[in-house]
Design brief:
Shape: elongated
Helix content: 40-55%
Radius of gyration: 21 Å
């Protein structure tokens, strides 16, 4: 994303938590499995990144054409992470801190991917021009078509990243094993 564009807006990031219980790594991980955010139709996730994206766009008729002359995003990224409901003992607390720091780092990569997608949307939108569209109707169809491709690309990028991170030897898999096999 061009630095000038990013200087005009920044995503708002927030963290939401859900409670987990247990006094061992294994018990905490079991609680995550029972209480974590729903993931598709078959399970729960450890953590989740969602976003709300709205736009201020100005469409302007230019002769017989229509152009987008303003495209300003408002992006809110929400990271949902587990949080123990009770204070943890020294070794378990240390193990948990390593685990949750790694999970948050992973989720923030998803946040960066979302922010980059919004930058691409902004670049694609701003200056888009459709001829023979003085009523500014065709441009909306064209914009939707282009944005669908960017959205699909971002979702695939997230799936690919998760697949690597959760594979044997991947960062998330290692974090889970360290937590479950730790104190």
């Amino acid at each position: 994303m061009p630095a000038a564009a990013l200087a005009e807006w920044q995503p708002v990031e927030q963290i939401k938590t859900y409670g987990v219980t247990g006094q061992t790594g294994a018990a905490l991980y079991q609680s995550i499995g029972e209480r974590g955010p729903g993931f598709g139709s078959n399970g729960r996730a450890i953590a989740h990144t969602t976003f709300k994206l709205t736009w201020t766009r100005k469409y302007e008729a230019q002769g017989s054409a229509c152009a987008i002359v303003t495209a300003r995003p408002k992006l809110i990224i929400t990271y949902t992470l587990p949080k123990p409901e009770a204070r943890l003992s020294g070794p378990v607390a240390a193990s948990w801190q390593t685990f949750i720091a790694g999970i948050e780092k992973h989720e923030r990569v998803h946040g960066r991917h979302i922010t980059e997608m919004v930058g691409e949307i902004e670049s694609t939108s701003l200056g888009l021009r459709v001829e023979d569209d003085a009523a500014c109707k065709k441009i909306r169809v064209e914009l939707t078509r282009r944005l669908g491709a960017l959205s699909d690309k971002q979702r695939q990028r997230g799936r690919d990243f998760d697949q690597v991170e959760m594979s044997d030897g991947g960062n998330i898999r290692q974090l889970i094993l360290q937590l479950v096999n730790g104190p």
